[in-house]
Amino acid sequence: MYREYKQWKRFFAHPLFLISYAIVAYMIVTCGVNFLLGTAANLLQGNNSTGGGLGSFIEQTAKNAIHGGDTADTISSLFQVSYLWTFQGQWWKAYLVIYLVASFFIGRKLYIKRMSFRSILLGLKGTMRWTTIEEIKKQYHAIPTNHMPYEGCAGIPIIHYDGFVYIDVNKTNALIDASTQSGKTETFTYPFLDSIMRASEKDSAVILDIKGNILKNTKEEFEKFGFLVKVFNLLDPHLSIGFNPLELVKKAYWKGDVAQAQMLAQTLSFSFYNNEEAKDPLWQQASITLLNAIILAVCEECKKANTPEKVTLFTCAMMLLNLAGEPDEDGLTELDYYFMNLPDLNPAKLSFATIKFSKSVTRSSIYTGTTAELQKYLLENVAKLTAQNDFDFEELSEGDKPVALFIILKDWDDSLNDLAASFLSQESAVLSELAVRSKKSKLSRKVHHIFEEIGNVPPIPNLPRYMGVGLERGLLYYLVIQSFKKLESAYGENAAEDMKELCGNWIYIMSESPDDSKVFSEKLGKTSVIAPNRNGDPMSEDKSYGEQEDSRDLMMPEELTKLVEGERVILRTKKRRDLKGKKVKPFPIYASEDEGTAMLHRYEYLLDYFDKEVSFDELGLESTHQNIKLEDLMLHFTTEESTSKAPDSVPLKAVPEERSEFPMTDLEEVHHTETPISTILTKDQYTFISSMIQENTSSSRFECFKTFETIEEIITFLEAPEHQFIYDQVSYLLEKEGA
């Protein structure tokens, strides 16, 4: 931090000093006037000691000088000290004139001092400043650092001062910018969880615990304070609550809300296959569509057979694996036959419609790509984990006990992280709907979402929306990120910007990204400072000094990168009132080591409670899904020729004989010639083919395409295996136009 220029001379311009100066000046003037007027009266009127006026005084003084008399007695008889405080009432007009003259000179002197020594900081270059500790005491609740229960609700830690942690209990989201090894867990997460435990108003918490250390250190204490601890454990699925990603889809379908089921299935499929960096997004879109169709088909078949327990991703994966096998002589698989024979308005068939327009080779590629993503749900431990729901999300708000729900991931393996994203999205969706349908439109118990390293987890579907509408409902989100770039990489620039704007508290602990420190520095704003200057010859003692108002960042980017352990900077745009309801200006807060307001680490006051050396097996975690038999989750499909069927088997009817031919095959007859493009394709058709190739291939291949002059070259180009999807789309277009 910069060293502030001390303006000690401002003391001489302080109103108290100037008032004191004026009083002393008037006292001196009064005493002087009293003495002069008293002496003048004595000289003019005479007194007992001299026997008469000025002439007598002169005569007596002359005698003393000649005869050696006491001259001092003569003088003292004329100039008496008592005159200083004795008012000469008969001279009141003289007093009035003298006071008027004195007031002019005293007032002029006061004005000169005021203008010479007053502060020239007028805020012309910036008005931002740090919140003082006195203001913090009036605006934030203070809780002791003794790990004992306290009255009130939980809040995020702001600063520590004099044995108390000051917490913000406002309903607002928070963004914590803290890179690796910055102390974010030690100075934010653990103190926050300590507050949640101890508060008399019990809230629930959802904690994204990448390594599982937070669970190990806090589970025992949560249970001591009356919390129900649940763990969604992707590190050890056999020590986890079960979670069926299709649970919400199933509930909507069983209620007859097919539209809602379709939307939920679409959201889930999108989270599985969406890839912003994909060069050919059509394959991802095809996989999303196919999985939607399979999910809806499984729901339909299970609803008919009254087997809701079979609506699982394992069932969907097995359906795709079993039916999308070897194609017949027509290039169709049993999966194609199944969907083709569903009723025309069946939602599963409608979802499958896009797939059926592709050629057999392309469909095979789509099936392969879709199966690859679902392969993990065929693993025994994952299949059982996702086969049932062991925890009702509504318990977070409506349960008899507050809940601490932990989500544990593998920090070295991202293959199951999309499952965690779906878990968190569905949790927020369930609680949002619960709040909307309640009488007060809010949850009975607030739910705090502490998402550590959220940038390292696949994007949680609809998270920006939940953050925007969740505050009044009692859903609060705290995003602990390593950098803004990490957040933007996961959610996209626009969504990340929305999420940042939805956070009323921005806490900077430490960041390795220069961009982050610049952003925080800009948001802190400018402050005005006094910039002194000195002029004169370098070797001369005769120097002239001056001062001028200048501006600087309240904290520069490079200063932010040098915060010591425990220090932090808080931007709090949503803090508008103090504890008594009075309006306040939300100036930023600097938790400073020098001011004694730096935040404590866990080891400084919580080590006796949050330091447990245990393994996951020793935590007493239980699961019920390990006893599930996977064969009981499968649907058995048979053809009409089968002589026997299982009770829940699904018939596959014969395929209609009429199938459309792709018009591109008609063009293959001209392979032996060189047919100009313009004789076969219209300008619009050629433009469409060009745009498809430009969007879905590399720039070099597109440049190659632009050199083609004949239909034969285009067909040969499109028949390449890697261009099958484009080939199918072009064929479909030409068929519709009757080309």
UniProtKB/TrEMBL annotation:
UniProt topology in membrane: Multi-pass membrane protein
Signal peptide: none
Biased composition (Basic and acidic residues): 540-551
Disordered, as annotated region: 530-551
Pfam families, A to Z: T4SS-DNA_transf
GO cellular component: plasma membrane
CDD domains, per the entry: TrwB_TraG_TraD_VirD4
Subcellular location: Cell membrane
Alphabetic keyword roster: Cell membrane, Membrane, Transmembrane, Transmembrane helix
Chief location bin: membrane
InterPro entries named among the record's database cross-references: P-loop_NTPase, T4SS-coupling_protein, TraG/VirD4
Transmembrane feature ranges: 12-37, 92-111
Gene3D superfamilies (alphabetical): P-loop containing nucleotide triphosphate hydrolases (3.40.50.300)
UniProt record similarity statement: Belongs to the VirD4/TraG family.
Protein name: Type IV secretory system conjugative DNA transfer family protein
Annotated source species: Listeria monocytogenes
